[in-house]
Amino acid sequence: MFPEIFHFGPLHLRSFGVMLALAFLVGTWIALGFARRRGLDESKLLNLVLVILVSSIAGARGMYVLTHLAEFRTNPALAFALWEGGLTLYGGFALGTIAGFAYMKRAGLPMGVTADVVTPSVALGVGIARIGCFLNGCCFGLPGHAPWCVRFPPGSPPDAVFPGQLLEPSQLYNAFAAFGLFLLMLWLRPRIKTAGRLWWTFLALFMLVRIPIDATRYYEPSAYVLNSPFGPVTDSNVIGAGIFVISVVMWILAGRAARQTD
Fold it and tell me: What pLDDT does residue 239 have?
């Protein structure tokens, strides 16, 4: 855990913010390279990346605040303290996808092709951002006994919940899953011919891999909404399942649309 790189007076350089910036820069560079190959307008693509970045952060933070209202009831201004961590990835995917497609339509970008162009960047960006979560000490895991489990320092948020215990590095599980999907998307990119299907494939697969990862992550008791034969279900699980179903439906519709234009 290394939440702050350095500070000089009121200036604080936090690792979480640095990793978000790195995710944006690297993702943008990769997306622009793919955009050139597909003949897309690079200035519009850059604007799209900015729209996705801002809306994803807003959606992720907004969902976190809505599901943790007790934390902000006494001091609502903390809802804007992004440097403290606290992002719900599902909210970022939902709002980022909606805002991204809305901008593509407004800018006259081919939606399916453009979505496929940014897909590897999104996967890589999620992985880099999750390393930022690990450095920040947020989104931590449950107690575990695996050799790679970690013990966070005294006074950190994980230690406040599980004092002195070894915890599953849930943030790194998410990061490695995203990096794996990034490589898979690079491999699938020239092989999936139907425009738009690469994006919906990534979104569906990421929702699936989150199921076992979420089982290693700590959630506040208020996050659990029901019990199932497979274990307790959180509000994030419900949202993820909804995104998965929508992704599968959109994958099918993308294929139908492609056949109708042939």
Answer: 87
Count other Cβ atoms within 10 Å, centred on residue 41: 14
- Residue 30, pLDDT > 70, answer yes
CA distance 61 to 78: 11
Helix, coil or strand: residue 84: helix
DSSP code for 73: S
Q: When comparing pLDDT for 148 and 77, which is higher? A: 148
Q: Within 13 Å and on the Cβ side, how many CA atoms surround 33? A: 10
Residues 6+ apart with CB under 8 A from 249: none
Give how far the C-alpha of residue 203 lies from the chain's centroid of Cα atoms, to the nearest Å.
10
DSSP result, 126-172: HHHHHHHHHHHT-S-B-B--STT-B-PPTTSHHHHHSTT--B--HHH
Residue 224, token pair as written in the block:
């659990």
Count CA atoms closer than 13 A to 61's CA, side-chain side: 16
pTM of this structure: 0.90
* Other beta carbons within 10 Å of 262: 4
Structure-block tokens of residue 178: 């995203």
Per DSSP, 217 falls in state B
CA distance 187 to 108: 28
User: Which residues, other chains included, contact 129 with Cβ-Cβ below 8 Å and sequence gap of 6+?
Assistant: 19, 20, 23
